[in-house]
Amino acid sequence: MTPRTSKQFEEIRSDKRKLIIDTAVRLFADKGFHETSISLIAKEAGMSKGLMYNYFESKEALLRAIMDELTVTVMDLMNPDHDDEITSQEMEDFFNLMLDLIKQNNEHWKLYYQLSLQKDVFEILQSETYSEHILRSQGLIYKYFAERFENPEIEMMMFSSLFKGFSMQYVYAPELFPEKLVLDFKQRMKELFIKEKKN
């Protein structure tokens, strides 16, 4: 038997990590963060608890990894070329694609919204150092609004509130949102928040 290459080991490790994350997302969403143990996640993922600790040092570290991935996914839509600037076209593309992404990853988003409303769990996410990805993404989004609006803090808050409110309902009851309503929402968000830079 030919020994595995480092690339194959990397792929195996990446697949195992994804399996752990997907399993944890499902269990956290179904049973809640506090009621889900590392032992249960390992059992459901078909691996030993010891092996799980090779990937994540704790349940809290696993939770942070899940939320971090979600942030990276959103920022890949907002700033796909990773040039540290969100253009008006990129923001328009974000509005076009984001709800489709939520529909495809419904369990991840259900978990996000469940956890974001639990103060003690939210504090776990912010403990130690707040995620580098989250801080960086907030800075980029603020820069977008500062370059286009007189009062960027208010506009950014409105953008966040409208989008989170709509998408939270969309996650939990997609059947209440016919395609025309979703398209109209996207169009209204574009009218409110897509502008060219101030001179």
Query: What's the SSE pattern?
Result: HHHHHHHHHH
- Cα shape: globular
Please mark out the parts with pLDDT under 50 across 5 or more consecutive residues, or reply none: none
Number of strands: 0
Mean pLDDT: 87
Q: Could you give the distance between the termini?
A: 65 Å
- Cα gyration radius (Å): 19 Å
- Quickly count the domains: 2
Query: What structural class should be given to the helix and strand makeup?
Result: mainly alpha
Please summarize the sheet with the most strands.
none
Percent of sequence in beta strands: under 5%
Percentage of residues in helical conformation: over 70%
How many H/I helices? 10
Description:
The chain has 199 residues and is an all-alpha fold. It folds into 2 domains: 1-56, Orthogonal Bundle (Arc Repressor Mutant, subunit A), CATH 1.10.10.60; 58-193. It has 10 helices and no strands. Helix 1 (6-31) crosses helix 6, helix 5 runs antiparallel to helix 10 (179-193) and helix 8 (132-146) crosses helix 9. The mean pLDDT is 87.
Summarize this entry quickly:
This protein has helices at 6-31, 38-45, 49-55, 59-78, 88-104, 106-116, 119-126, 132-146, 152-172, 179-193. It is mainly α and 199 residues long. It is globular.
Task: Pick out its properties.
199 residues; mainly alpha; Arc Repressor Mutant, subunit A; 2 domains; 10 helices; 74% helix
